[in-house]
């Protein structure tokens, strides 16, 4: 069984979008869910959030940033190539229903999982205010798509090269301060951004959700590698999440657990890049 | 060859024929199979010990009722093809059962020879026959004419594979849905290479595919399709989803880096081959490893950690050695390889450093008190006996529960409090029409062979259900 890559595009430096032929996954996918892929027999199982899906066409879109060996290897694949494994949809879908006004905050590649949520919340009859950000304008992704999917779109860059000069959460705070009644804030991005961002929203009377990106193997509750403490209890990100109430998540533990293989990951990348230089890949 | 038969000569060796093994010193450094298997000569000598009882108790002791004296007689006659055929009449996975069944608690426990000496090494003979056939090339088995009925099997572990094989032989069209990328369930992700080489699992799966069974990997029932939808698409469904959810102790420090569930540790090592540098899988290779638990899974984790390069590995178990649920052979092998057994000991908390890495396990000594509901004397802590075992990897192997994903969209499927499916013991029939279940998803974590037995019974019941439908 192989899963064909139908399209592949570098949408920002080192950030790639891939459209995969996976009809079974596409048919069942919902906003907020993820997939696990494996490039080949010797590869890792890597979880990636679903960035889009087309039920009719039977395709699933994923967006990833080159970080570890597997994502660097993925970056070298092109349309027409195949992945050995592509399993999903995994995780509990986002709890999308009519709530009123929703703020969606996406940072970096965290904008990717925000996109299907924007569409779903709007479809459910909500006003969706999206705030997307990146370090600079070149790294900003899905601006046009988000513009179309959201009721309102705000942009922030760390260096001010586009939109607000500063953090996405500055804009979020401004909206929360404006007195507009907001039912829910969803923040997705690097863990530190979610931690700090959620902290900014804590004082407000608003529900705050974050989507976690724990290390996992199977994605079905079997390994427990993705466990995280939520409200003092151990939860599995893959089945109990990936979305949790930000006020209850132990972010320090989350970040510590994400660092579990940092040394090994660094070595694997070094070895891979060395092999690439030698023309082995 | 008849004269070799014990009954005829009247001289039966009290001791069973020893199993050739890799020496402990050597094998603790590799993942190759520990036991090497009988030679033809070994097999003939061992088979000759069988008394060919008229009322064989061993057959009753086998969950799938293999005709044990029958196949052993064929071994004596050097008709190994006939012997494996006889085994396969009731057991679709003999190469696996010959390796991982707890024979000492089943067929061999009932062997008459066991009363005065050692029972016939039935498991070793079964393995010999299966390996003989594998070397010669497995014949495509014959199936009955197609019935036109479609059966879905959820899970490709021992229960699912057995049910699928039996149903396919009866002419039904079987599709197996497997959530992982490889078929085999616990045979692939759980039991290590050194105890059950994965090439054997692959061949057994191929045998079942030869019967016309389609295996769909990466297909999660409860996510891609619900059980209710499966019931619409198929004439019957067998649930063999196992007990895949790891239990944790709920003690302080359990989420520290370096603390694994046995499921995760073994999946990384076995299914994802973390021991092989050619694979990308990461796993912490601990120098000082503590494994909590006393079952086969704990033995597997401890012996895997040793092979990954640990200096010392301790098994921490709250009861005594006699209460350990692991197979006798696994306990012996673990001891030979140098695993330390810390019995009547229970972890209290797990300690870590400022970088969130595990540094040790604080344990307390236990003593056996009054018998509990299971009839085993329950351990009670000895006050003030706490002590520390330094560790950089800790593996929790205290059991598993059924995975609840299958219950999403399964109207009318009754579960009990422990999360297992309620199913008839004889037929596997559940409260949901057309849905049968067997193996760990019904019993909670148990053995490969009991899951196979349940798969077998359910296949028979499903066939009857389909005839009446």
Strand content of chain B: 15-25%
Helix percent of chain B reads 25-40%
| Distance, first to last CA of chain B | 50 Å
Q: Which sequence of strands runs across the widest sheet of chain A?
A: 6-1-2-5-4-3-7
SSE string of chain A: EEHEEEHEEEHEHEEHEHEEEHEHH
Count of helical stretches of chain A: 9
Rounded radius of gyration of chain B (Å): 23 Å
Largest sheet of chain B: 5 strands, parallel
Number of strands of chain B: 16
Average pLDDT of chain A: 94
The share of residues in extended strands of chain A comes to: 25-35%
The computed structural class of chain A is alpha/beta
Instruction: Report the span from N to C terminus of chain A.
Output: 23 Å
The unreliable regions of chain A are none
The helix content of chain A is 25-40%
Rg over CA atoms of chain A: 18 Å
Q: Specify the biggest β-sheet of chain A.
A: 7 strands, antiparallel
Shape of chain B: globular
How would you name the oligomeric state of the polypeptide chains in this document? Answer: heterodimer
């Amino acid at each position: 069984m192989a899963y064909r890559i139908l399209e592949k595009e570098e949408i920002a430096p080192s950030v790639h979008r891939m459209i995969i032929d996976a009809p079974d996954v596409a048919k069942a996918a919902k906003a907020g869910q993820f997939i696990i892929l494996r490039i080949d027999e010797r590869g890792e199982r890597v979880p990636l959030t679903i960035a889009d899906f087309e039920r009719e066409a039977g395709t699933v879109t994923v967006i990833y940033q080159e970080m570890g060996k597997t994502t660097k290897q993925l970056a070298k694949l092109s349309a027409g190539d195949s992945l050995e494994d592509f399993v999903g949809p995994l995780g509990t879908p986002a709890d999308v229903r009519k709530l009123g006004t929703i703020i969606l905050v996406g940072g970096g590649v965290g904008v990717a999982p925000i996109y299907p949520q924007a569409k779903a919340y709007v479809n459910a009859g909500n006003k969706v205010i999206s705030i997307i950000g990146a370090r600079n304008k070149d790294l900003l992704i899905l601006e046009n798509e988000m513009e179309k999917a959201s009721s309102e779109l705000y942009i922030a860059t760390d260096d001010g090269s586009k939109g607000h000069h500063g953090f996405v959460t500055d804009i979020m705070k401004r909206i929360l301060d404006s007195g507009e009644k907001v039912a829910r804030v969803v923040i997705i991005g690097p863990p530190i951004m979610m931690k700090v961002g959620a902290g900014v929203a804590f004082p407000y009377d608003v529900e705050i959700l974050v989507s976690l990106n724990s290390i996992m193997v199977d994605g079905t509750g079997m390994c427990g590698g993705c466990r995280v403490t939520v409200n003092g209890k151990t939860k599995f990100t893959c089945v109990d999440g990936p979305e949790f109430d930000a006020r209850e998540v132990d972010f320090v533990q989350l970040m510590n657990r994400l660092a579990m293989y940092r040394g090994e990951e660094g070595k694997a990348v070094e070895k891979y890049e060395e092999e690439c230089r030698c023309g082995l890949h | 060859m008849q004269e070799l038969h014990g009954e005829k000569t009247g001289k039966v060796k009290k001791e069973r024929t020893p199993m050739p093994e890799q020496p402990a010193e050597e094998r603790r450094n590799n993942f190759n199979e520990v036991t090497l298997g009988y030679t033809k000569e070994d097999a003939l000598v061992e088979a000759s010990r069988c008394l060919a009882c008229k009322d064989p108790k061993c057959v009753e002791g086998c969950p799938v009722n293999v005709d044990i004296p029958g196949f052993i007689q064929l071994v004596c006659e050097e008709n190994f093809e006939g012997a494996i055929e006889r085994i396969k009449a009731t057991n679709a996975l003999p190469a696996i059962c010959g390796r991982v069944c707890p024979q000492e608690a089943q067929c061999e426990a009932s062997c008459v020879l066991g009363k005065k000496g050692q029972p016939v090494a039935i498991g070793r003979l079964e393995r010999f026959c299966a390996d003989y056939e594998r070397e010669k090339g497995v014949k495509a088995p014959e199936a009955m004419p197609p019935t036109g009925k479609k059966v879905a099997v959820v899970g490709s572990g021992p229960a699912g594979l057995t049910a699928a094989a039996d149903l396919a032989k009866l002419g039904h069209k079987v599709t197996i849905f497997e959530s992982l990328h490889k078929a085999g369930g616990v045979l692939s992700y759980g039991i290590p290479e050194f105890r059950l080489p994965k090439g054997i699992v692959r061949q057994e799966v191929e045998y079942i595919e030869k019967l016309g069974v389609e295996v769909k990997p990466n297909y999660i029932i409860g996510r891609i399709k619900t059980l209710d939808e499966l019931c619409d698409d198929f004439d019957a469904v067998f649930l063999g989803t196992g007990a895949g959810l790891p239990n944790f102790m709920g003690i302080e420090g359990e989420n520290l880096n370096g603390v694994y569930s046995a499921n995760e540790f073994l999946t990384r090592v076995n299914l994802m081959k973390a021991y092989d540098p050619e694979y990308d899988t990461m796993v912490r290779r601990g120098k000082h490893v503590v494994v909590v638990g006393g079952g086969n899974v704990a033995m597997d984790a401890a012996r895997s950690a040793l092979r990954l390069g640990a200096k010392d590995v301790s098994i921490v178990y709250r009861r005594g050695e006699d209460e350990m649920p692991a197979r006798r052979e696994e306990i012996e092998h673990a001891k030979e390889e140098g695993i330390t057994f810390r019995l009547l000991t229970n972890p209290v908390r797990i300690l870590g450093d400022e970088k969130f890495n595990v540094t040790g396990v604080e344990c307390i000594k236990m003593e056996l008190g009054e018998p509990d509901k299971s009839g085993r004397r329950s351990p009670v802590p000895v006050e003030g006996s706490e002590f520390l075992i330094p560790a950089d990897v800790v593996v929790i192997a205290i059991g598993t529960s059924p995975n609840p994903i299958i219950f999403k969209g399964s109207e009318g499927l009754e579960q009990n409090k422990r999360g297992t499916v309620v199913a008839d013991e004889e037929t596997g029939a559940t409260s949901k029409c057309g849905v049968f279940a067997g193996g760990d998803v019904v019993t909670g974590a148990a053995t490969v062979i009991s899951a196979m037995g349940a798969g077998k019974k359910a296949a028979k019941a499903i066939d009857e259900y389909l005839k009446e439908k």
